[in-house]
Design a protein that fits this description.
The chain has 1 helix and 20 strands. By secondary structure, it is mainly beta. The protein is elongated, with a radius of gyration of 22 Å.
Length: 287
């Protein structure tokens, strides 16, 4: 366990995930802590991840959890999966003895149960919370709340395209289910993208698979969506959320393949966005 912090040191919090998706925070704090709280504040949508404190927001953008004595010099707060935490990045603070909230820094983190978790999806949604250290070393919790959810379980990259195998939660795969490869709007086109491509899906129970061919794709970014009930039903963004990695973008990069397109030679390959959604990038090459 992390040793108790000295009065001059930043408050440090150990974090443990459970198999239901909840989190437990153990804060090292000596002396008389009074009525202590662990406070989570959601950042604004345009805030960067450089460790700045979240601005004071509306009541619905703040979650306060009681910090109770757990051992000598330690306080504990629980964030069970039943407590709603809207999607976003939540900066973690501790308020001791009625003082000002103090930014927490991460201590020992054990998220093995999150990586092994298989949610039931019976509530119609999937809730995921992953604590991580910001660039400045502060503790923040990344939360996702997807209703329904399409999890990208396995990616296979071949020369001709990307094969995705996944699983749905909170919905069923019905006849007519298909995937969509949607071009992201491009500022150079006045906000218009070159369209979308429909992809056939093979479905067995809650599991699905499809292949996204690279041929014919215009340069740019293409986002992957699933329509579990076909065109009349909801469009569900494909993502990989059910593990312990808060930001996959710099860590999990798919192999890029050289392809010939009507627009000239290009490199194509999958990647995860900053929100852990699945996309394709098509980058022009010199002929």
């Amino acid at each position: 366990m992390t040793p108790p912090a000295s009065p001059a040191a930043p408050l440090r919090a150990d974090c443990i995930g459970d198999s239901a998706g909840g989190l437990t925070f153990d804060v090292a704090a000596r002396g008389n802590t009074g009525a202590a709280l662990l406070i989570l504040r959601r950042r604004t949508a345009d805030a960067t991840d450089t460790g700045e404190d979240a601005a004071e927001g509306a009541a619905e953008d703040t979650v306060s959890l009681p910090l109770a004595p757990a051992a000598e010099g330690r306080l504990r707060a629980a964030l069970p999966s039943s407590v709603s935490l809207p999607e976003g990045r939540w900066d973690a603070y501790a308020r001791l003895s009625g003082g000002d909230p103090r930014r927490l820094v991460p201590g020992v983190t054990d998220l093995r149960s999150l990586a092994e978790r298989t949610p039931g999806g019976l509530l119609g949604h999937v809730a995921v919370r992953i604590p991580y250290a910001t660039r400045r070393g502060h503790l923040t919790v990344r939360s996702w709340l997807r209703a329904p959810h399409a999890e990208a379980v396995d990616l296979s990259v071949a020369s001709g395209g990307l094969t995705v195998r996944g699983r749905v939660y909170g919905t069923r795969l019905l006849p007519g289910a298909h995937a969509e490869l949607r071009a992201r709007p491009d500022a150079d086109r006045g906000g218009q993208g070159p369209g979308a491509r429909l992809l056939d899906v093979t479905a067995v129970g809650t599991e699905f698979a499809f292949t996204a061919p690279y041929d014919g794709l215009a340069p740019g970014d293409w986002d992957l969506w699933l329509r579990p009930a076909g065109a009349p039903g909801p469009a569900v963004r494909l993502a990989r959320l059910l593990d312990d990695i808060a930001d996959k973008h710099p860590l999990l990069t798919g192999r890029r393949t050289r392809v010939e397109t009507p627009y000239g030679p290009a490199e194509a390959g999958p990647y995860y966005t900053r929100d852990n959604d699945l996309s394709l990038a098509v980058t022009p090459l010199e002929a």
